Amino acid sequence: MGSKGRAFVAELFRFHLVGAGTLLIGTLVFLALVSLGIEYWLALTGDYATGILFSYYMNKSFTFRASTRSDLKPLSFTILGYLVAFLLNLILLSIAVERLSLDVVYSQIVIMLLLAALNFLVFKYLIFGLLIRDQHGTQNSPAKGRVSRDG
After folding, report:
1. How far is CA 114 from CA 1, 36, 89, 91, 119, in A?
2. d(Cα 25, Cα 115) in Å, to the nearest integer?
3. What is the pLDDT of residue 130?
4. Which of 41, 72, 126, 145 is most buried, judging by how many CB atoms fall within 10 Å of its CB?
5. CA 123 from chain center: how many Å?
6. How far is CA 60 from the centre of its chain?
7. Helical pair 72-94 and 40-58, crossing angle rounded to 10 deg
8. In the Cβ-directed half-sphere of 54, how many Cα atoms lie within 13 Å?
9. Phi/psi at 148 (nearest 5 deg)?
10. Is residue 137 pLDDT above 60, yes or no?
11. Burial class (CB in 10 A: 0-12, 13-18, 19+), 13
């Protein structure tokens, strides 16, 4: 495997580490809020908000090692990406369970794996690829997959 292949696999591994951290932190926030007597829907909102922010900043700094002049546009696209992934998850799960009569747990596991792959590609090539490259007017460094201001 060449250096580009190794870099891709390393990013994929770091992306999954961030995903595990996002799940852990979001769950802890949810449990903490529920234990404080907060309504479950508000706790879930806190879970998602914390997870999205954690995921964005960790993927930016740790997974893809990108720099930005402003976080507004990439963070907005991150939120939009999570909303689209949620709706896609809901649609696919509904089809699997209601139309195909598949088991809900196994269906969700398969859908989560597919959406994790899709989210990786969205983060790598859209959010931390095109958007940040457009912001800097530069291209990703091919050796490291990083965005630089120098070009």
Report:
1. 24, 35, 10, 13, 9
2. 20
3. 77
4. 145
5. 6
6. 10
7. 120
8. 19
9. -125, 155
10. no
11. exposed
Q: What is the dihedral of CA 99, 105, 107, 112, to 10 degrees?
A: 140
pLDDT for residue 151 = 34
Q: Which residue has the tokens 């961030």?
A: 18
Distance set, CA 17 to CA 62, 63, 91, 104 (Å) = 10, 9, 27, 25
Q: How many residues does the chain have?
A: 151
Identify the bridge partners of residue 44 per DSSP, sorted by sequence position. none
- Please provide residue 70's backbone torsions phi and psi, each rounded to the nearest 5 degrees: -145, 145
pLDDT at 136: 53
Which pair of structure tokens corresponds to residue 25?
């932190």
